Amino acid sequence: MAPRKIIIDTDPGQDDAVAILLALASPEEIEVLGITAVAGNVPLELTAKNARIVCELAGHTHIPVYAGCDTPMKRPLVTAEHVHGKTGLDGPLLPDPEMPLADGHAVDFIIDTLRAHEPGTVTICPLGPLTNIATAFQKAPDIIDKVQEVVLMGGAYFEVGNITPAAEFNIYVDPEAAEIVFKSGAHIVVMPLDVTHDALVTPHRIDAFRALDSKVGHAVAEMTDFFERFDKEKYGSEGAPLHDPCVTAYLIRPELFSGRHINVEIETQSELTLGMTVADWWRVTDRAPNAMFMGDVDAAGFFDLLTERLARL
Asked: Torsions phi, psi of 25, nearest 5?
């Protein structure tokens, strides 16, 4: 089979960086058409910079990186420096990028790319807030039917929230954007906290990255080591959830994941539960299913795949 053409929409973030590296290390399965940056974990200036840092780390400077939306659709930006550090990629010392940003806006790149390809041949992979995707869908609704899939990291059900008691960070930052995407009719696959909290980057797994003894291996070990400290203290778990690489891993080995095709609604009104993904896991409503909501991951298989692919870079 030909590799799947994808656009990575991202707000790096150490786990975003690992997701990008996994994609770039897997050309048999994935062709990265471009990377679009959005404000999220850190402001847009840094996410656009960090995406280029990651491309250079991987030696893939030919990948175009576009800057996108710098604020959510209707709300002030909420960031997560308390998790990712002031740069978003705290941990390793990585040089500033030499490759320039691509000309144009990320939203226009998404629209133009989907219009230029045959329907059903481009997958969108959001790893952060859904601002760029929702803006593109609003600006050019004709592209929605052209999307092969939207495979995103965001939301939660049994694991509830990680930024509020009810909401996962990516959805909470721009719930209006999430509502647009989930109601768009596009085929959606969701990697929620229910999955990512089983993909724990433990000391043993960090040692495996470091043992690759490459620039990428050492950088990923240092990123995940930094990332791990916050989440281990927060959750009391044996390691930190490696959220965003679950999206890339699904594109390569979908059999690692299992879930249900269910209805998912986004809460945009309540101050108490703003950004909650109301997932009808038990199918107790008559609302039509609109997303494949994953519930489990083969964590050992996931980390075997990740380590094997990072060794290629």
From this structure: -90, 5
Q: Which of 198, 146, 204, 185 is nearest to 290 (CA)?
A: 185
CB 186 within 8 A of CB 147: yes
pTM here? 0.97
The rounded distance, in Å, linking the Cα atoms of 261 and 249 is 19
Residues that are catalytic: 243
Note the maximum CA span of the chain.
53
Q: What is the pLDDT along the chain (313 residues), one digit of tens a residue?
A: 899 999 999 999 999 999 999 999 999 999 999 999 999 999 999 999 999 999 999 999 999 999 999 999 999 999 999 999 999 999 999 999 999 999 999 999 999 999 999 999 999 999 999 999 999 999 999 999 999 999 999 999 999 999 999 999 999 999 999 999 999 999 999 999 999 999 999 999 999 999 999 999 999 999 999 877 766 667 777 888 999 999 999 999 999 999 999 999 999 999 999 999 999 999 999 999 999 999 999 999 999 999 999 999 9
Amino acid at 232: K
Q: How far is CA 254 from CA 9, 121, 174, 258, 305, in A?
A: 20, 17, 27, 8, 12
Number of residues assigned to the chain: 313
